[in-house]
Design a protein that fits this description.
The chain is an alpha+beta fold and 500 residues long. The chain has three domains: 16-82 and 326-498, 3-Layer(aba) Sandwich (Beta-lactamase); 87-157 and 263-323, 3-Layer(bba) Sandwich (D-tyrosyl-trna(Tyr) Deacylase, Chain: A); 168-259, no CATH class. The protein contains twelve helices and 21 strands. It has helices at residues 2-14, 19-31, 68-80, 125-138, 263-277, 325-335, 338-353, 358-371, 396-407, 412-417, 436-439, 483-498; strands at residues 40-47, 52-56, 87-92, 95-97, 100-102, 105-108, 143-144, 148-151, 186-192, 202-207, 214-215, 218-222, 231-234, 240-248, 254-259, 286-289, 295-296, 315-321, 442-449, 452-459, 470-477. The protein has a six-stranded mixed sheet with strand order 17-16-8-6-3-18. Strands 2-1-21-20-19 form a five-stranded antiparallel sheet, sandwiched between helices. Strands 11, 12, 13 and 14 form a four-stranded mixed sheet that branches. The model is unreliable at 1-19 (pLDDT under 50).
Length: 500
C-alpha cells in the first residue's frame, strides 16, 4: 500500500499544472510587484467559447493609447469593406487648344493618406506621377499655360484633435491627414550635434525639399547624457519653422520627423517638377488653395490670388486609386501609424455623413459600434482614431467584447491578419523568449505612451478549434518604472495568456 501511495504521489507531481491556474497565479504574484506599485492595470482573457481564463479590474476604464487602432480598424473594415479605396482626381479649368492646356491643372484630393508615403502599400511617387502624366498624355496635353494646383478642399481641412498635446502635433505622429496629402504630411531633417557643447545643432532639411520654407533653428548641443530634447514648431499661417531644445554631444546623427503644414503645395511642387523633367512644361509654376478659396502661389501671400475654380467649372481628366483598405489597415496596425488611422477614421465620416471632419468621423464610428451591438455611452470615450489623445478611455472588458464581436463577423479572418505578431513591427521585442510555435498563434496590437502599456488581440488554438481561440486585453496605466523593468513582467503575462 505504501508503495502504491508513493507511486500515486509521483504521478500527481508529474501532471501538468492547469494553464488557467498558471495565469491566475501569475497575476496574483504580479499584483504585489514593486514595478506595478501605484499603477492602474487590468486584464481580461476569455475563450470565444465563453470560458473566462482570468479577470482583474476588467471594467476599469484606462487610457488605451494605440489600442484604439484596433477599434478603428475593425469599425472601418466592417463599414467600408476591405476593397474600399481612396481616390485622387485630375481636372482642369480653361480649355485645351492644339495640345496646350490654357488654364490650370488641379490635383483634387480624396483623402489618400499613402500619397508619396513610406508605407509599403503606397504607390511609389515616380510611378504615381507617371500614371498622372499618362492621363494628361491621353487627353492630348503637351504643355500647360497655367498652374499646377494642389486642391485639398474636399475633406474639411487638417484640424488636429483638440485633445492632442501641443508637442505631439508638431511631429510626424501628430500630423492630421486632409483631402490631399504628401509623405504623411511630414518634413524630415537630419540632425547631428556640434563638436562643442553650447554650439548650434547641425540641422539640414532632408525630405521633402521645401525651398519656400524659412527655418530659424535655435537648438544647441548639450552635454553628454542629456539625450534628445529637441522640439519643433511650425506656423500654419506662413512658411516658418523652428527647432529648439538640446541634443547631446554623444548622440549619433538621426532623422527628426516633423510636421509639414503645406502638403498640397509640396505635392504640386513635386508634380510640377516631374512634368517639366519629362517633357511637359508648365508656364506658371505651382500653387495650393488658401482657406479663403484663393490660388496661393506665393506662401507669403496668405490671402492674395484669384479665386480657385469650383468643381462645376472644371473638366475631369481621370484619376488614380490607393491600395485597398485591407492593405492600408495592415500597415496601420503593424506600424502603429497614427496618420493612416486618422485617415481611415475620417473616411468613415465622409462615407456616412459626407463630412470628413473629426466629429462626424467619430459619430460614424459610434454608429458602426451600435450596429455591431456594442454599447458605448457611459462605457468608452473615443476622441480620435489613433489613440494619441490621453482622453480616450476604455476597459479591458470593452476591448474583449469588441474583439469577440469582430470574431463573429464575415471579415474576421482578414481583420485578424492585420494584427502584428511577436517579432513584427511594434512587437519586435515582445515575447522574445517564448516558444516560436506559440508566437505564431498570437495576433496582438500594442499601445504605448508615457506611463501607458496596453496589449489586446487573439491567440488561435493549436488544434484549430475556433471556440478555443483566446481573446484578451492587458492595460497598464501610470507606470513610472523603466521599460527595461516593466517589459519582462508584460512578457510574463502575455506568455501566460498565450499558453492556455
Amino acid at each position: 500500500m505504501r508503495r502504491l501511495l508513493l507511486l500515486l504521489a509521483a504521478l500527481t507531481l508529474a501532471l501538468p499544472i492547469p494553464a488557467q491556474t498558471n495565469l491566475r497565479t501569475t497575476l496574483r504574484q504580479l499584483q504585489g510587484h514593486a514595478a506595478l506599485n501605484g499603477a492602474e492595470w487590468g486584464v481580461l482573457a476569455v475563450r470565444l467559447g465563453g470560458d473566462t481564463l482570468a479577470a482583474l479590474n476588467a471594467d476599469k476604464r484606462l487610457v488605451p493609447a494605440s489600442n484604439v487602432k484596433v477599434i478603428t480598424a475593425g469599425a472601418a473594415l466592417h463599414s467600408l469593406g476591405p476593397d474600399y479605396r481612396f481616390l485622387t482626381d485630375l481636372a482642369y479649368s480653361g480649355k485645351i487648344v492644339d495640345g496646350v492646356l490654357k488654364g490650370d491643372l488641379y490635383i483634387i484630393g480624396g483623402g489618400d493618406p499613402t500619397t508619396a508615403s513610406k508605407t509599403a502599400c503606397a504607390t511609389p511617387m515616380t510611378q504615381l506621377f507617371a500614371q498622372w502624366k499618362k492621363i494628361l498624355d491621353d487627353a492630348g496635353i503637351r504643355s500647360i499655360d497655367g498652374t499646377v494646383i494642389g486642391d485639398g478642399r474636399g475633406w474639411g481641412g487638417r484640424v488636429p484633435c483638440k485633445d492632442w498635446s501641443v508637442e505631439d502635433i508638431n511631429f510626424y505622429y501628430g500630423a492630421m491627414p486632409g483631402a490631399l496629402n504628401f509623405y504623411g504630411n511630414a518634413q524630415d531633417f537630419t540632425v547631428a550635434p556640434s563638436d562643442t557643447v553650447g554650439k548650434p545643432v547641425r540641422i539640414t532639411p532632408f525630405f521633402p525639399d521645401a525651398p519656400w520654407m524659412i527655418f530659424n533653428h535655435a537648438a544647441t548641443t548639450g552635454e553628454r547624457g542629456c539625450g534628445d530634447q529637441l522640439l519643433y514648431s511650425a506656423s500654419e499661417a506662413g512658411p516658418f519653422g523652428r527647432m529648439y531644445g538640446r541634443f547631446a554631444i554623444d548622440r549619433k546623427s538621426k532623422v527628426e520627423e516633423c510636421i509639414n503644414h503645406f502638403p498640397e503645395y509640396t505635392l504640386a511642387y513635386y508634380f510640377h517638377n516631374y512634368l517639366a523633367e519629362n517633357g511637359l512644361p508648365v508656364s506658371n509654376a505651382f500653387a495650393e488653395i488658401s482657406p479663403y478659396g484663393l490660388i496661393r502661389r506665393d506662401m507669403f501671400l496668405y490671402d492674395d490670388g484669384e479665386p480657385a475654380a469650383t468643381t462645376r467649372q472644371m473638366t475631369r481628366l481621370g484619376g488614380t486609386q490607393s491600395s485597398a483598405l485591407i492593405d492600408i489597415l495592415g500597415e496601420m496596425m503593424k506600424r502603429s501609424d497614427n496618420f493612416l488611422a486618422e485617415a481611415v477614421l475620417k473616411a468613415m465620416g465622409h462615407d456616412t455623413y459626407g463630412r470628413a471632419v473629426l466629429d462626424s468621423a467619430l459619430l460614424a464610428e459610434k454608429r458602426v459600434l451600435g450596429q455591431l451591438g456594442l454599447k458605448t455611452d457611459g462605457v468608452i470615450q473615443l476622441r480620435d482614431g489613433s489613440g494619441l489623445a490621453r482622453t480616450n478611455y476604455a476597459s479591458p472588458a470593452f476591448f474583449v467584447q469588441f474583439l469577440r464581436t469582430m470574431a463573429c463577423q464575415g471579415e474576421y479572418t482578414q481583420y485578424r491578419r492585420t494584427f502584428p505578431q511577436p517579432g513584427q513591427g511594434t512587437l519586435a521585442a515582445r515575447m522574445a523568449q517564448a516558444d516560436p510555435a506559440l508566437k505564431k498563434r498570437v495576433y496582438m496590437k500594442s499601445g504605448s505612451m508615457n506611463g501607458v502599456r496596453c496589449f489586446c488581440g487573439y491567440v488561435t488554438p493549436a488544434d484549430g478549434r475556433t471556440e478555443q481561440t483566446i481573446v484578451f486585453s492587458l492595460m497598464i496605466n501610470n507606470a513610472t518604472v523603466s521599460s527595461a523593468t516593466l517589459n519582462p513582467l508584460i512578457d510574463k503575462i502575455l506568455t501566460a495568456i498565450a499558453s492556455q
